């Protein structure tokens, strides 16, 4: 064979005339004759074998040119077995050349056919995607056929390359073009976007192994590393594929250097290039992350190539490098078996990751925290780093990025779940063991120190310590003097002693710090110091000889070794306890921060916070129950995910107990729920009811046993504390919500245990028992059937009336809460509760009178101390009686309007149904008329009105009639409230005030008659608790009688300025409810609420902020109020500082987000400049304008209103805010608008400067006016002359409500004083008639309370 087959760079090169002895395609078969040529080729293939390719290559080339796919697929099928027998063991040179050409031709045709078919397959899959019917047609069938043939082609090529075909080439050097032909085919297959899918796994594995053979046997290492980078840059879907490929090449094929080559290529990419879009940085990042999970041991030696990207601009690469470091730590650099080099690498990697917890990009911070979470979960973090990383994680809880916060919570949860310290983390529990073990360690040290010998210090160390002092001494001794010279002459006459003895003596002198000795000849200080050092420290030769003459060094006794081991163990134990306590303290600090996130708006953060609270509670961390309780209200969340998470959390913590038997599980469940109930607030108990009720209603196997355990605890069959007994009875009430018989069948037990003879010993247990019994009433269960009530002579009511009446004459702080619940239960459950409560009032009043009478007889001649105590006791008892009267009055009204009214409607409904059944419609017309009335809602309307009128009439005329016992107490209430000098006891005043407000709920006439007295008490009383309760009562009265309370609104708002924080807090809470529920109209008085935004109390500030947040959701509410609020807050009489004003306005203006609102406010605030009188008001208005998010339309309106504020620009407080508006508008403005802004800025500066020049040099006034007149034509309206009042503006703002009225003098109101004498007229102690506000003219406050804040 005289020619060679040269692999072409492109397919067309084969038909061109080549070099010497180069094969050229002679005959390109036309498509018409191609089938016959292909058949001949197949026949030759069967008869001659693979060498037939030498004769029929032109046919294969023609197939490539004409792309006849069906023939190609058939041909490839035949080649799959032919190519396996391509090689023999030995050939001659001609034979080898023949075989080589055949192999090259075959591989070339196969690879080019594969590339061609793959290209058409990719294009066809995009163009002919399956439709709705799923019919792919012929093209789809072709794709499926090629998918099956693709794997066969790859297997054929793998089998070929695995053979030792290098022997076909001279010197066994395979030409690079041959390898490139095969690998280019592989890379073409990888470009398919579906190569990473599961269905293409055989193809993907085949390509990876084919490339692996090429890299290992055919020197494709460098080309593969470059190609990997190129493809990653353009095809992101190849990241996971190449990660798998590089891992296989490094592990299975042993080409470990491929990892280093690829990492070097990535490391050489510049940061600026990676920061650009389309640079493949996402693919690089994913590739590195997945490669690190597969072969972290191969990455560690080459990690230095990637570290440079941690300082680059691409945050994606920083994330990838941190994840690579994390995988190395988790899979390789972990455990106790690391050598020193491994530990050094581990510490260096941890330091690098730790630095990026504070990365500038939030995504990097998030992923670093996630990397730490994986490290902690894998227990790969050294114990010495726990405290430091925990501190950093707690700090990230305050990050502004939600994702960072969420990742920090996950990391802290991982720390707690995998902590190496203890299953119960409580710093309080750790304190005592730590103190005990520390004391034991101290004793052990003292014991060992007492027995230990004097420590032997090395001679070299001792010499280093004494050398400075010795040098000073030597220099001082060697100074020339007459005395020393005489001594030296005398010493010369003496005979020298033995050198060794002298050395020993000197050494002994030095060891006892005796530096002055005169047995040496004259020397220089330096030489003498060298000699002394040699003598003292000794050399290796004479060390043994010197040591014989020195005192013996004591040796450690054998029994001391055991004490040293015990000391080390004790030190380790103390250090462990210290680390545990530190870790627990950090967890407790994290809990306090994370608990505040339970009510964030981000659902994912709330869910992780709930999970964290569960984790810390399971580990018994101190204060963990606070978080569990705090998340209870989330059971009412509208977000289903949050609600389900809370329910599941409580099930996990409390409703899925562990135990061997059902009894043990029930006791564990009751114990855990009881701990949660102890000291729980009413809101917490109400939320817990939802969860516990679901448990008792679910039919759990533990339900019966749990109820039995609760009854045992309540009745005292099992010894338990009073708190757990109260928790048990409350839990029984929750169970009764699901099944009434739990309580109803045991009423006698409840009465005998907690409402019997010992009821006065524990009114709290009695109260909780009454609450439990209330769960069986219709009001709680919302029953629609016949009312469930008990007779008046039932044991329950006998016990209740006796306990209430006896408690009236006792001084028990918990009696009133019991009384309120008991009266409520009587009205809910008793038949004719009014009669029962009437007898209760009579009995209580009689007992009180008897006690007062007995006290008066027994103390006819008492001393002053006994008399004072008796009066105090009488006041407390009278206060309790008045509280009982008020509670009865309130529940009597509630009984009429709820129970009686509901029963009347029920009976009317039953009567109507009975009549309809007895009497059918007489005619079709009557039936149509009745149906029409039902549709219009006319049926029953008149009857309901009649019933409501009846209830109102009873409240108005009968409840406080003379024959009714309630009316007897009303004059007493009025007397106590109107005579604070006579009745100065705080509890009595509080009870009387509340009772009077409850009486006022009965009818409008009673309310209108006593409203002035109640507001007098509100403003004049010195007791904060009375003022707070009065605010609450007036809020309820406002809801019931809004028309009567409307003129007094200003007095209610005045409590927002109360000097006591508790009163302000109550006032802001009540007013928030009234305003947001549209009971009160929002007027200018809301400025008092705005002042609370800067209240010293943080809780009050948060309540005020919540008020405005909710108010902002109402249409234009804050927008309508802002001008009036500004005028009130900038009033000179208020005296508010500029800083406080700015703080308030900044918050309020943050709610103005619409352009139309901004535009309108600009005009209204500019108009306010006309009526503002002081410079401070001008400054406040200018600051308010600067706080607006100014838009282009607002700026135009600001220009139009130039005449309103132009004469005020000489004031810096006006000029500077307007300049800040200009600075904001200039940023990011378009060219045309920016020019207008700059022109306006020049105008502002010119006017401001002109005013200053007038003040400094009046001579330049004319010149300034000329310059001003030359600038003014640019404005729409001329400047007004200084000192002259401007004319009314003709702008669009015509809203009179935003114009500040002129101040008018008001006549001074008469001073109202309280009466301190019982004989004085009661009316003197309340507001005069002239002070009572009318409906049409709301009253003004008699005195403005000025609150200065610094």
TrEMBL record:
Belongs to the CND1 (condensin subunit 1) family. Residues 1287-1304 have a biased composition (Polar residues). One of its GO terms (biological process) is mitotic chromosome condensation. Residues 1316-1326 have a biased composition (Acidic residues). It is found in: Chromosome; Cytoplasm; Nucleus. One of its GO terms (molecular function) is histone binding. Keywords: Cell cycle, Cell division, Chromosome, Cytoplasm, DNA condensation, Mitosis, Nucleus, Phosphoprotein. The keyword Transcription does not apply. This is Condensin complex subunit 1. Residues 477-498, 545-564, 902-936, 1251-1350 are annotated as: Disordered. Regulatory subunit of the condensin complex, a complex required for conversion of interphase chromatin into mitotic-like condense chromosomes. The condensin complex probably introduces positive supercoils into relaxed DNA in the presence of type I topoisomerases and converts nicked DNA into positive knotted forms in the presence of type II topoisomerases. GO terms for cellular component: condensed chromosome, centromeric region; condensin complex; cytoplasm; nucleus. Residues 1025-1185 form the Condensin complex subunit 1 C-terminal domain. Residues 902-922 have a biased composition (Basic and acidic residues). Residues 65-224 form the Condensin complex subunit 1 N-terminal domain.
């Amino acid at each position: 064979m005289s020619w060679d087959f040269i692999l072409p760079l492109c397919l067309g090169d084969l038909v061109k005339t080549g070099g010497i002895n180069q094969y050229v395609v002679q005959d390109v078969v036309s498509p018409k004759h191609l089938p016959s040529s292909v058949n001949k080729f197949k026949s030759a293939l069967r008869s001659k074998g693979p060498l037939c390719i030498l004769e029929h290559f032109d046919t294969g080339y023609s197939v490539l040119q004409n792309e006849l796919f069906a023939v190609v697929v058939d041909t490839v099928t035949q080649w799959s077995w032919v190519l396996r027998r391509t090689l023999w063991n030995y050939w001659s040179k001609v034979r080898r050349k023949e075989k080589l050409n055949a192999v090259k031709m075959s591989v070339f045709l196969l690879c080019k056919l594969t590339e061609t078919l793959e290209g058409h397959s990719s294009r066809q899959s995009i163009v002919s995607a399956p439709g709705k019917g799923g019919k792919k047609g012929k093209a789809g069938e072709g794709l499926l056929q090629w998918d099956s043939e693709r794997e066969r082609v790859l297997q054929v090529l793998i089998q070929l390359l695995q053979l030792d075909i290098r022997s076909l080439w001279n010197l066994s050097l395979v030409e690079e073009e041959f390898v490139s032909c095969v690998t280019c085919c592989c890379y073409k297959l990888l470009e398919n976007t579906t190569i990473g899918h599961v269905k293409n796994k055989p193809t993907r594995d085949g390509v990876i192994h084919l490339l692996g053979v090429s890299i290992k046997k055919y020197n494709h290492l460098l080309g593969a590393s470059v190609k990997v980078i190129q493809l990653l840059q353009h095809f992101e879907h190849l990241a996971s594929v190449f990660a798998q490929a590089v891992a296989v090449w490094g592990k299975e094929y042993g080409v470990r250097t491929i990892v280093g080559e690829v990492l070097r290529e990535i490391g050489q990419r510049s940061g600026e290039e990676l920061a650009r879009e389309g640079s493949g940085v996402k693919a690089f990042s994913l590739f590195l992350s997945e490669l690190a999970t597969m072969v972290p041991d191969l990455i560690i030696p080459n990690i230095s190539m990637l570290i440079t990207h941690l300082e680059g601009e691409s945050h994606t690469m920083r994330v990838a490098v941190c994840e690579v470091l994390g995988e190395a730590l988790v899979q390789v650099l972990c455990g106790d078996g690391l050598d020193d080099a491994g530990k050094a690498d581990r510490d260096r990697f941890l330091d690098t990751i730790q630095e990026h917890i504070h990365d500038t990009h939030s995504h990097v911070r998030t992923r670093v925290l996630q990397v730490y979470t994986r490290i902690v979960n894998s227990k790969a973090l050294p114990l010495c780093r726990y405290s430091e990383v925990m501190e950093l994680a707690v700090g990230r809880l305050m990050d502004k990025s939600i994702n960072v916060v969420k990742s920090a919570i996950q990391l802290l949860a991982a720390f707690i779940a995998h902590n190496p310290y203890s299953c119960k983390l409580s710093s309080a529990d750790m304190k005592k063991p730590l103190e005990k073990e520390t004391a034991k360690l101290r004793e052990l040290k003292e014991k060992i120190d007492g027995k230990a010998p004097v420590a032997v210090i090395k001679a070299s160390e001792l010499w280093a310590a004494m050398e400075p002092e010795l040098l000073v001494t030597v220099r001082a001794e060697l100074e020339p003097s007459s005395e020393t010279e005489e001594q030296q002459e005398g010493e010369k006459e003496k005979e020298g002693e033995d050198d060794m003895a002298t050395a020993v003596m000197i050494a002994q002198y030095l060891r006892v710090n005796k530096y002055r000795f005169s047995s040496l000849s004259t020397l220089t200080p330096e030489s003498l110091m060298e000699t002394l050092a040699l003598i003292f420290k000794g050399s290796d030769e004479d060390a043994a000889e010197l040591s014989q003459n020195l005192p013996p060094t004591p040796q450690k006794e054998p029994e001391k070794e055991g004490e040293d081991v015990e000391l080390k163990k004790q030190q380790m134990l103390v250090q462990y306890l210290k680390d545990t306590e530190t870790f627990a303290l950090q967890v407790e600090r994290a809990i306090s921060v994370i608990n505040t996130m339970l009510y964030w708006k981000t659902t994912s953060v709330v869910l992780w916070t709930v999970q964290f609270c569960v984790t810390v509670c399971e580990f018994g961390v101190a204060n963990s129950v606070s978080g569990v309780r705090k998340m209870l209200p989330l059971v009412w969340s509208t977000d289903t995910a949050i609600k389900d998470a809370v329910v599941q959390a409580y099930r996990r913590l409390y409703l899925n107990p562990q135990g061997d038997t059902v009894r043990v599980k029930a006791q564990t469940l009751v114990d855990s729920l009881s701990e949660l109930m102890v000291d729980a607030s009413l809101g917490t108990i109400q939320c817990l009811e939802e969860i516990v009720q679901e448990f008792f209603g679910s039919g759990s196997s533990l339900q019966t046993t749990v109820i039995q355990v609760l009854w045992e605890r309540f009745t005292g069959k099992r010894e338990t504390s009073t708190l757990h007994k109260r928790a048990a009875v409350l839990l029984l009430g929750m169970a009764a919500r699901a099944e009434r018989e739990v309580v109803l069948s045991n009423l006698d037990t409840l009465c005998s245990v907690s409402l019997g003879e010992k009821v006065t010993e524990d009114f709290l247990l009695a109260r909780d028992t009454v609450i439990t019994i209330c769960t069986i009433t219709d009001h709680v269960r919302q029953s629609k059937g016949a009312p469930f009530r008990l007779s008046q002579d039932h044991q329950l009511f006998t016990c209740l009336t006796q306990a209430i009446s006896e408690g009236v004459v006792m001084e028990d702080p918990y009696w009133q809460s019991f009384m309120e619940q008991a009266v409520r239960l009587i009205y809910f459950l008793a038949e004719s509760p009014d009669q029962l409560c009437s007898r209760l009032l009579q009995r209580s009043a009689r007992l009180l009178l008897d006690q007062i009478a007995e006290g008066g007889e027994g103390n006819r001649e008492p001393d002053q101390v006994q008399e004072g105590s008796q009066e105090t006791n009488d006041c407390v008892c009278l206060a309790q009686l008045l509280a009982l009267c008020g509670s009865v009055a309130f529940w009597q009204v509630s009984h009429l309007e709820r129970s009686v009214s509901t029963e009347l409607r029920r009976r009317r409904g039953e009567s109507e149904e009975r009549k309809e059944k007895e009497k059918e419609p007489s005619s079709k017309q009557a039936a149509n008329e009745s149906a029409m009335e039902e549709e219009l809602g006319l049926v029953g309307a008149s009857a309901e009105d009649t019933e409501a009128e009846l209830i109102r009439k009873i409240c108005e005329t009968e409840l406080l009639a003379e024959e009714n016992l309630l009316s007897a107490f009303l004059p007493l209430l009025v007397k106590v409230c109107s005579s604070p000098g006579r009745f100065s006891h705080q509890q009595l005043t509080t009870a009387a005030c509340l009772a009077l407000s409850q009486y006022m709920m009965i009818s409008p006439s009673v309310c209108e008659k006593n409203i002035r007295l109640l507001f007098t008490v509100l403003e004049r009383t010195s007791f904060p608790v009375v003022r707070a309760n009065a605010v609450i009562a007036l809020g309820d009265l406002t809801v019931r009688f809004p028309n009567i309370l409307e003129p007094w609104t200003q007095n209610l708002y005045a409590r927002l300025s109360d000097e006591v924080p508790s009163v302000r807090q109550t006032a802001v809470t009540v007013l928030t409810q009234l305003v947001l529920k549209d009971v009160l109209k929002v007027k200018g008085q809301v400025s008092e609420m705005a002042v609370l935004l800067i209240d010293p109390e943080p809780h009050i500030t948060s309540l005020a902020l919540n008020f405005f947040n909710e108010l902002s959701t109402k249409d234009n509410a804050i927008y309508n109020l802002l001008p009036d609020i500004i005028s009130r807050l900038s009033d000179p009489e208020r005296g508010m500082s500029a800083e406080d004003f700015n703080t308030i306005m900044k918050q309020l203006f943050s709610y103005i987000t619409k352009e139309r609102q901004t535009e309108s406010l600009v005009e209204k605030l500019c108009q306010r400049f006309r009526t503002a009188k002081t410079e401070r008001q001008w400054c406040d208005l200018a600051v308010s304008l600067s706080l607006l998010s100014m838009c282009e339309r607002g700026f135009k309106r600001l220009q139009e209103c130039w005449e309103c504020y132009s004469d005020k620009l000489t004031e810096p407080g006006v000029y500077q805010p307007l300049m800040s508006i200009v600075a904001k508008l200039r940023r990011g403005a378009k060219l045309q608008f920016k020019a207008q802004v700059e022109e306006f800025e020049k105008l502002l500066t010119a006017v401001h400067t002109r005013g200053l020049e007038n003040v400094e040099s009046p001579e330049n006034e004319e010149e300034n006016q000329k310059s001003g007149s030359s600038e003014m034509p640019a404005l729409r309206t001329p400047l007004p002359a200084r000192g002259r009042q401007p004319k009314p503006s003709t702008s669009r703002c015509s809203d009179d409500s935003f114009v500040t009225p002129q101040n008018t003098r008001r006549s001074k109101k008469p001073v109202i004083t309280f009466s301190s004498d019982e004989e004085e007229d009661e009316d003197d102690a309340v507001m005069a008639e002239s002070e009572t506000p009318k409906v049409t003219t709301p009253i003004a406050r008699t005195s403005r309370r000025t609150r200065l804040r610094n």
